[in-house]
Amino acid sequence: MAVKVVMGQRLLKANAAVAQENRARFAAAGTLVVNLISSPGAGKTTLLEQTLVRLGGRFRIGVIEGDIYTTRDAERIAGKGTAVVQVNTAGICHLDASMVARACEELGAAYDILFIENVGNLVCPAEFDLGEDVKVALLSVAEGGDKPAKYPLVFRSAGAVVITKADLLPFTDFDLAGVTGEIRALNPEVKVFILSARTGEGVEEWCRWVEEMFLRKRAAGSGTGSE
Amino acid sequence: MHEVGLICSLMDQVTESAAQNGITRILSVKLVVGKLTLAQPDFLHFAFANLSPGTIFEGARLEIEERPLVLRCTACGTETRPEYLDYFCPACGERMEIISGDELFIEYYEGDNGEDGSGG
């Protein structure tokens, strides 16, 4: 006999459930989790390397590297003496919450800050909650300023936008004020950083923000007796 | 996009619900997809057709309702149905909010519970 079952259930419910488990685990450990999203080549790994140089001495930092293939990024990060796990998605264009859960099992010990470098892609990663505290969208000067308008979802869901490769600004027609305005139109509360990981310009300010986010999370969680 | 992953997710969720309801075969599934999600109906149909053989979805129909993007001005209330996300009100220049277009959910499914329905 044919029966009709009304669900009204969001797709990706399974991912949302695992993301919640991740979030609870990170809250218990007092770990700040930052999900870095950009197109390929925007400079996620290079920014991460420079961030580790500045914060690595003071905080226990873990890194999850998401790539379709190769362990090249993990090798770059491991060179900085940081705990890193590479996730190869073998064709899948984003990380999902269960991949992060498995990577965390491998990473083991608790960290102060966990950076997740998502697969280079401005479309799909925006839709998959990993259990992170904040999504950070990177946009390089070399890519052109039309990306926020073309890929609005990721820029809307980001807590911060980092404009990278600012040392290239004099050589391009990148309209910094126009792009920043467009980002703010999409997402009025978003924090915008303009930096060059190559020259180091602006990297301190970014690191300070990460540090503040971490301290805020610890302060919020200090009543739970997780320490 | 990740249409194959979305269909895998759909099949997992419906399979779980079907098991709870004693349903052994799915006849149809209705999915609601907002324009803003960028999930392409053609690819969703393709993924569904290719993933269903050998499962309880074999021979089932996937019905997709596309919802247009609808925006409303946060200041003057003007509503628009643009092709793309447009953040500023054409009437007064204030910010627009999304009323519809970001949906992505399974509305219902129909299945066969193996009973003959004659009450016996």
Structure description:
Chain A: This is Hydrogenase nickel incorporation protein HypB. Chain A: Belongs to the SIMIBI class G3E GTPase family. HypB/HupM subfamily. Chain A: Residues 33-192 form the CobW/HypB/UreG nucleotide-binding domain. Chain A is of the alpha/beta class and 227 residues long. Chain A has a single domain (31-220), classed as Rossmann fold (3-Layer(aba) Sandwich). In chain A, 38% of the residues lie in helices and 22% in strands. Chain A has helices spanning 13-29, 44-55, 72-78, 97-107, 147-150, 152-157, 176-186, 203-221, and strands at 2-10, 32-37, 61-67, 83-88, 113-117, 134-140, 160-164, 191-194. Chain A has a seven-stranded parallel β-sheet with strand order 4-3-5-2-6-7-8, sandwiched between helices. In chain A, strand 3, helix 3 and strand 4 form a beta-alpha-beta unit. The longest helix of chain A has 19 residues, at 203-221. Chain B is of the alpha+beta class. Chain B has a domain at 2-67 and 100-112: hypothetical protein PF0899 fold (2-Layer Sandwich), CATH 3.30.2320. Chain B has two helices and six strands. Chain B has helices spanning 3-20, 41-51; strands at residues 25-34, 61-67, 70-73, 79-80, 96-100, 104-112. The longest helix of chain B is centred in the first third of the chain and has 18 residues, at 3-20. The chains are: A alpha/beta (227), B alpha+beta (120). Chain A binds chain B through residues 1-15, 92-94, 96, 123-124, 127, 152-153, 185-186, 188, and chain B through 1-2, 5-6, 9-10, 12-14, 17-18, 21, 23, 27, 31, 36-38, 85, 87-88, 95, 104-117. Strand 1 of chain A pairs antiparallel with strand 6 (104-112) of chain B.
